[in-house]
Amino acid sequence: MESVNPATGERLETYDDHTEEDVDRALDRASEAFGEWRDRPINERQVLLSRAAEVLRENQEEYAELMTEEMGKPIVEARAEVEKCAWVCDFYAERADEFLADEVLGSEPESRSLVSYEPLGTVLAVMPWNFPFWQVFRFAAPHLTAGNVGVLKHASNVPGCAKAIEEVFTEAGYPEDVFTTLLVGSDTIDDVIRDDRVAAVTLTGSEGAGRSVGETAGSEIKKSVLELGGSDPFVVLEDADVEAAAATGVQARTINSGQSCIAAKRFIVHEDVYDEFVEEFVAETEALSMGDPMDEDTDIGPQAREDLVEDVHEQVEGTVEAGAELRTGGERPDGEGNFYPPTVLTEVPRDAPAATEEVFGPAAAVFRVGSEEEAIEVANDIEFGLGASIWTEDLERGERLARRVEAGCVFVNELVKSDPRIPFGGVKNSGYGRELAEQGIHEFVNRKTVWVQSPEGPDDVATE
């Protein structure tokens, strides 16, 4: 397994893959660690999580540079990602005991009933390269604190990040094997999920990977959470602040150089403001700086791999062939590195690749609609349902339409983003389950009902 700088093609480091014996030992040690970790008082687990936040902040520059080198994230965004990881640690360090406290329920006069939240065991986390620290920490912060142990199978192009994340927990003082990184290929995942020592699995990745993991977990009757792809609609209505919508829209499309599942990808614009929006949007796009991701002024870095550049370019060309207008970008630059320019496609037909597929790169597809009804129809005319954004100055209208969009999260007059305080996840082919907030920490626990009856209480209780 090796890491390669996508901006230069330079080979950074080579890592030895873990063998079957290594994986077996790791799962044994994780199971043993769970036996003690689950009984550790939650306040002690929260203290360790606070320490993990400190380790992240103390090493922010090192971790940011590692991300930038391995997958090309612009350095300013990489620093922000490390800080966001520290934030999610802070959040659960402060709130986990509240979220996991016994919930007392109403019952009979001579009895007491409650729901307790108890950890499941070893959870396999299969994570992607595009947010190599954040995706892992938004899993690990809540679920380790809930008393589970974690085994990470990270994307094969970010092994350095995978090892660094393991070191964060070690430096924070976590017991050995509470969090473990496996350097293995994707062909190992199925066997690990089926292993009796693994209780559950979470995956952030492609629809295809999600189908495979979900099928295996289902056949083993193991809990799974899937956060998959998205082709998020960004709806601009006739009463929107067009200038703000265009500026935010460009940011929403090009964050992480366009490589984000919750990036705005389909811009659905009312005909009354269509021309104005396109003019603003193209101007904002052309103002972006593409280049060395280590440069503080770079907005767009390289795509993470060469094959990803080819995929995006093929989708752009296919969309133009279907009848769309190429307004800017769309041509691969000469020189080294996996670069692809920010691209805007307008008058996109409903059956074009950019309309029906997820475009995982900095290419925006703009659609013209004649009414809010048509806007919602176009927004929902996709197999994905991760996030959505609606722009209108009428907040009641925005909330009303948000309820009609088929997505796991809808933001009005804001770009879609994950936040430790609010649940995150999708519907349709974007997956199931939720991460973050109180809902997220409850995904990998046994929500156990406990009923305690007084010996002097009634004995004529109805049973199922």
Automatic annotation (TrEMBL):
InterPro entries: Ald_DH/histidinol_DH, Ald_DH_C, Ald_DH_N, Aldehyde_DH_dom, ALDH_GabD1-like, GABD/Sad-like. Keywords: NADP, Oxidoreductase. Pfam families: Aldedh. Residues 1-22, 320-339 are annotated as: Disordered. SUPFAM superfamilies: ALDH-like. One of its GO terms (molecular function) is oxidoreductase activity. Gene3D superfamilies: Aldehyde Dehydrogenase, Chain A, domain 1, Aldehyde Dehydrogenase, Chain A, domain 2. This is NAD-dependent succinate-semialdehyde dehydrogenase. It comes from Halalkalicoccus tibetensis. The lineage of its organism: Archaea, Methanobacteriati, Methanobacteriota, Stenosarchaea group, Halobacteria.
